[in-house]
Amino acid sequence: MTTLHLKLRSSLAALVACSALAMLASAPVSAAAPMAKTPAPGFFRIMLGDVEVTAISDGTTDLPVDTLLSNTKKEIVDKELAASYLKSPLETSFNAYVINTGSKLILVDTGAGNLFGPTLGNFVANLKASGYAPEQIDEIYITHMHPDHVGGLAKDGKVVFANATVRADKREADYWLSKANLEKADANSKGFFQGAQASLAPYVAAGRFKPFEGDAELAPGVHSHVGKGHTPGHAEYVIESKGQKLVLIGDLIHVGAVQFAHPSVTIAFDTDTVSAEAERKAEFSRAAKEGYLLAGAHLQFPGIGHVATEGQGYRWIPVNYTQMH
Ligand SMILES: [Zn+2]
Fold it and tell me: According to the model, what pLDDT value does residue 4 have?
């Protein structure tokens, strides 16, 4: 060690000591600011060609996915969750999407309103945070009529979206809005029918509920696609602009950490598990092959990304963060 090195070392040590003293002198007696403990506003926005797509969070809720998932074993579910540093009960996202085509403002699903517990029902607050008001929504496309997708439509028996027309597959409407089906439903599922009927009622009464049948063109560049299995008339919505494509897949998948790698795994909420599994596999296969974007109502917010084939299943690739410059 040379003299120069020693000199440098001692002057560096002196400098460190000095700045440590300075920090001590300027530090307040109590440095702790209260923790904010609030998330970022629940919206995320991308462009898809000329179309603006905004993911809106309705909130999250903890789901006991180890008992809800079926066509698998609890050990496999626990292992896949652990591989993603997760465990059951799993904090699960509830997402809705706002599509601005330039001529129409379209909402896909509405969140749970007050039908699914206190941690959900944040849709309207997050929509406003994203720069839109509920009155600006022209059309609402419903993927299916489970309470966490339609609960946000109405509040205290009145419409939340004053100028919107609501659209859903006719088979979905015929099933959930039927008084006869409500009456014959068992005690556990009556609430699902009641929730759907209360949420749709003010729009039906105002003549602003217009069901469609199967695959239908709903707006320029936007069409529905039958995604059956989860419910009798579960619909996906396909958005296309300038060669880019996004498919809003609703509840085709619930637990990304398990079902991408194992697309044959189903969930207790599926009405027809065989069709749900087939539809999920077909959609993932197309999306991986063609390279288009998917968005899922229960994939971790914002729930938008690509899939790639991996082993016997798929890998989820979340969309890159963008500040839209
Ligand atoms: Zn759902």
Answer: 47
Residue 160's pLDDT band (cuts 50, 70, 90): very high
Q: Is the pLDDT of residue 228 over 90?
A: no
C-alpha 146 to ligand 1 mean position (Å) = 6
49 CA distance to ligand 1 middle (Å):
28
- What pLDDT band is residue 30 in, cutting at 50, 70 and 90? confident
Q: How far is the CA of 143 from the centre of ligand 1 (A)?
A: 9
Q: Yes or no: say if 246 and 48 are a contact pair by the CB < 8 Å rule.
A: yes
Q: Is the pTM of this model over 0.85?
A: yes
